[in-house]
């Protein structure tokens, strides 16, 4: 039928039939739900409901209520065999559907099933395929699964990091930038829980990720810097490893001065500040990376978070660099009523540190 209202009601009916009353409550679009044996869901699949739902999504992408209803039904069918064994490489729109399903928390958890969901396991297998579209979709889906600490911890324990690193290693030279970008996004999300940082460090992440320092692609550089900054957050050991790596510091210095990509420049400066804040080797960092100059420039940023991070790092390392013209900037910060209170507090801390350092 081409009647979108009729399709909407039909989609809702399919969603009710597929609804698992023992699963995640609140999925139904009506006050009541029907609990029906899996055999009826299998019957729907055998009658071609999945390609029909996909066809509706392709035909009416602008109809948000209809799209939501179809995605809901597809998610509830996600653990059925035909859906899982579809040749995703030949159905690019289905990959988009699967990734879209995972944007919402409840569908994502339903598919993940504490690391045992069939759809989750199928998505992991995409990372090993030769199809770059499938690899990218898999990495993006992993990043979507990695949205809470429990999921991240389980995925790292199950070895997801090794699979992502193996994928990245396939794309070091003349690789697909979109795949690298997606894979680094997944690694960054997985590195958020403190326990995962330790485990990923023990798994050799930092050694294997250095291969991407040669990348000349700003999107990859940006994601790499963000992932490394997440790895050193609160982790003295990781910060010490990176903070004594002369090749890495030289590359960070280069990117701190990047004029082609403001995002890369900002992330490089934030990583430099993080290395000083979280390690005990800031003297070496300042010497190799000329960090004082870059941090002073960062302190003049228009972004509050970058100002604050730079001021804290400068206060920590205040005994090892000349003020470099930072004093007038501090005076301006303290006098300006529009400057955020946390920035003024950090500016006062730096003033005290500079005074105490002689």
Characterize the structure shown:
With 358 residues, the protein is mainly α. It has a domain at 240-246 and 261-358. The protein has 23 helices and no strands. The protein has helices at residues 4-18, 38-46, 49-59, 64-76, 81-84, 92-101, 105-112, 118-126, 132-145, 149-157, 160-169, 177-190, 194-202, 205-209, 218-232, 236-243, 246-256, 262-278, 282-289, 291-299, 304-316, 326-335, 341-356. The longest helix has 17 residues, at 262-278. The protein starts with a helix and ends with a helix. Residues 20-37 have low confidence and may be disordered. InterPro entries: ARM-like, ARM-type_fold, Armadillo, RAP1GDS1. GO terms for molecular function: guanyl-nucleotide exchange factor activity. It comes from Erpetoichthys calabaricus. It is found in: Cytoplasm, Cytosol; Endoplasmic reticulum; Mitochondrion. Keywords: Cytoplasm, Endoplasmic reticulum, Mitochondrion.
The gist of it:
One of its GO terms (molecular function) is guanyl-nucleotide exchange factor activity. The protein has 358 residues and is an all-alpha fold.
Average pLDDT, rounded to a whole number, is 81
Query: Number of DSSP strands?
Result: 0
Structural class: mainly alpha
What spatial form do the alpha-carbon principal axes imply?
elongated
Helix content: 55-70%
Low-confidence stretches: 20-37
Largest sheet: none
Distance between the termini: 81 Å
Q: Classify the beta-strand content into a percent band.
A: under 5%
In DSSP terms, counting alpha (H) and pi (I) runs of 4 or more, how many helices? 23
What is the chain-wise order of helices and strands?
HHHHHHHHHHHHHHHHHHHHHHH
Estimated radius of gyration? 25 Å
């Amino acid at each position: 039928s081409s009647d979108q209202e009729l399709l909407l009601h039909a989609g809702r009916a399919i969603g009710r039939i597929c609804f698992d009353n023992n699963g995640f409550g609140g999925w139904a679009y009506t006050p009541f739900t029907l609990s029906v044996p899996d055999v009826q869901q299998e019957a729907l699949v055998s009658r071609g409901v999945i390609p029909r739902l996909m066809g509706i999504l392709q035909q009416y992408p602008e109809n948000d209520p209809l799209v939501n209803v179809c995605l809901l039904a597809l998610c509830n069918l996600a653990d059925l065999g035909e859906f899982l064994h579809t040749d995703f490489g030949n159905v690019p729109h289905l990959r988009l559907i699967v990734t879209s399903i995972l944007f919402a928390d409840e569908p994502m958890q339903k598919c993940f099933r504490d690391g045992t969901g069939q759809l989750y396991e199928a998505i992991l297998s995409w990372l090993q395929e030769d199809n770059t579209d499938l690899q990218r979709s898999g990495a993006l889906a992993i990043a979507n699964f990695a949205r809470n600490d429990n999921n991240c911890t389980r995925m790292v324990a199950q070895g997801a990091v090794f699979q992502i690193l193996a994928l990245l290693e396939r794309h070091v030279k003349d690789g697909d930038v979109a795949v690298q970008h997606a894979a680094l996004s997944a690694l960054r999300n997985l590195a958020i829980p403190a326990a995962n940082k330790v485990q990923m460090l023990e798994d050799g992440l930092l050694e294997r990720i250095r291969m991407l320092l040669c990348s000349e692609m700003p999107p990859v550089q940006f994601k790499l810097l963000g992932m490394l900054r997440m790895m050193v957050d609160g982790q003295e050991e990781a910060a010490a490893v990176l903070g004594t790596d002369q090749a890495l510091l030289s590359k960070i210095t280069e990117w701190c001065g990047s004029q082609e990509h403001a995002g890369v420049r900002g992330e490089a400066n934030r990583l430099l500040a993080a290395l000083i804040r979280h390690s005990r080797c800031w003297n070496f960092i300042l010497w190799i990376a000329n960090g004082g100059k870059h941090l002073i420039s960062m302190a003049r940023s228009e972004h509050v978070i970058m100002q604050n991070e730079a001021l804290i790092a400068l206060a920590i390392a205040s005994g090892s660099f000349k003020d470099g013209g930072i004093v007038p900037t501090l005076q301006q910060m303290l006098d300006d009523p529009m400057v955020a209170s946390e920035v003024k507090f950090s500016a006062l801390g730096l003033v005290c540190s500079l005074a105490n350092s002689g």
